[in-house]
């Protein structure tokens, strides 16, 4: 099944405003104050799952800090969307590969909003490679430093400020569970994120801080036209039982559940918005 027009972006990271059609980030229901008075920081919050999560969190009452690399137009659009919901947004330009940048992002968030209640680790990098031998040292370092080092750095910085009742939500991937023959390094980092989530949940449970994960399947985000060739984009998502790609707002609701008191009895768990692919929990 063809879902999208064939398209490709040569820029890394990809840009949401250049995608056709644009991803669906809009919350689907009125807010009910589930995050009223909370402050969240979302890495990779300018677009894709990060944008949808930022807007949904704002609708539910949270102020949001958005850490992004260099996608200025997308970030400004997301800021405006958060403010449309009546909440405050803080844009922070920085690279999660840098421990100093992660510490700076958390400190700016706390300085602006006075506290930190929710950390969403979402920023990621992927490149398709057919043969393991073609993965360069540079690509391997970039993938691991972005996808797992960044989660460590952000969590280390956030722990100076998170108190009992706080939540951490890590975005992993269906590829953590089933593997992917052309995303070997990426899938490996996502497996590390799943283990990191479970380990940190055990580490922090007595402090009253919950740590959970979300493992999306094929979701229509700027990752896709950036990382895939045009033919693959045109059929993206058709391989899952639902025969379609998901939209970012279909994942954001899982992050909201885990970040809010709706998920108060969840820690060390991973939710699977993946279109019906059956994987081990």
Automatic annotation (TrEMBL):
Residues 9-27 have a biased composition (Basic and acidic residues). The keyword Oxidoreductase applies. This is NAD(P)-dependent dehydrogenase (Short-subunit alcohol dehydrogenase family). PANTHER family: NADPH-DEPENDENT ALDEHYDE REDUCTASE 1, CHLOROPLASTIC (PTHR48107:SF16), NADPH-DEPENDENT ALDEHYDE REDUCTASE-LIKE PROTEIN, CHLOROPLASTIC-RELATED (PTHR48107). Belongs to the short-chain dehydrogenases/reductases (SDR) family. It comes from the Bacteria. Residues 1-37 are annotated as: Disordered. GO terms for molecular function: oxidoreductase activity, acting on CH-OH group of donors. InterPro entries: NAD(P)-bd_dom_sf, Sc_DH/Rdtase_CS, SDR_fam. It comes from Aureimonas phyllosphaerae. SUPFAM superfamilies: NAD(P)-binding Rossmann-fold domains.
